[in-house]
Amino acid sequence: MFAIEMPTGRTILAREPPLHQSAARRTRIGLVDDNAQVLEALVTALEAAGHEVIAAMTAGDLLERLGPQAPDIVISDYRLGAGETGFTAIQAARAKFGQTLPALIITGDTDPELVRSMAKRGIAIQYKPLKMDTLQAFIGKATERRST
Amino acid sequence: MKLRVMLADDHAMYRDALSLFLDTQADIEVVAQAADGHEVLERVGETRPDVICMDIGMRGLDGIETTRQLLRDRPEVKVLALSAHADLSRVADMVSAGALGYVLKGSLAAELLAAIRMVSRNQTYFDPALGVGDVAELLRHLKRTP
After folding, report:
1. B26 vs A19, A129, A131: nearest CB
2. Looking at residue A121, which CATH number applies to its domain?
3. Which terminal Cβ of chain B has fewer Cβ within 10 Å, N or C?
């Protein structure tokens, strides 16, 4: 048994040990999605995989919740509400914690212009449908690069 | 043997996120996703899920009608309702359609795994936030509510 601390402050007991926990080191992830249900499901998934997740629905909310401690990586859905995109959230986090902060955008949009624009800024893109193995591999690679 | 689970929800990213979570469990395998009730009915034969996590409010054929039609032909499949709403009359509609469990989308981490495992064993499971422990209690509660 192990305990997981949810962003809401409640502690739950996981019923099965997470499959990926031993394969990846505990990574602090800043996660942004404007859909509360999707956010909850992603937090649940990433925490079950052994990561620490700081979840937010907007860029401003993310910075506030991260506080002074930088995340190892920021992961954001591309289309956020209120005129924001995932790029807005990543830029805000990089402005505070440094331009080398690894970042990943999740999107179903395959527009080549978007891909070029994100690549130019050093932002990786993960297309839907998401797979835990590929997401874990990306998180591992991006955070390793940063720590070396 | 792993529990074979189908996820039915009209929000693709939500299905993906849920699938990521279930992928972390050694005893569960997501064998299919469906965006609406018609896709559930089409894919159930080929993918043979043990449990279907069914959103109630899907566009087109909703979760209640899908459950009713599904269980008419395939009574061996276990249906677990997923919903953002704690409205007990909706819970009763799903139960009367044949669902064995009901989990609120806001309490996934705490409830979903237990619910999937319980309904796979043909046992009922109601999210504790609903305030009802079993079908009899649900019916008593509805009788008291005009």
Report:
1. A19
2. 3.40.50.2300
3. C
Which runs of consecutive H residues, i.e. helices, occur in B1-146? Answer: 12-23, 37-47, 63-73, 88-97, 108-120, 135-144
Per residue in B15-27, is it b (16+ CB within 10 Å) or e — as a string? bbbbbbbbbbbee
- Domain membership flag for residue A19: no
Q: Is A47 on the interface with B (CB under 8 A)?
A: yes
Structural domains of chain A, count: 1
B14-63 pLDDT tens trace = 898 999 899 889 999 999 999 999 999 999 999 999 999 999 999 889 99
Which residues, at least 6 apart from A66, have a Cβ–Cβ distance to it below 8 Å?
A30, A54, A93, A96, A97
Nearest residue of chain A to residue B107 (CA atoms): A40
Of A57, A105, A55, A101, the residue nearest A77 (C-alpha) = A105
Could you tell me the residue range of the domain that residue A84 belongs to? 25-147
- Between these two residues, A110 and B68, which has the higher pLDDT value? B68
Domains and CATH numbers, chain B: 3-144 (3.40.50.2300)
Residue A7 lies in a domain: no
pLDDT in tens, A100-146: 999 999 988 888 888 888 888 888 888 877 788 888 888 888 777 66
- Probe site for chain B from A130, A131, A135, A136 (most B CB atoms < 10 A): A130
Q: Given this model, what pLDDT does residue A8 score?
A: 38
pTM: 0.81
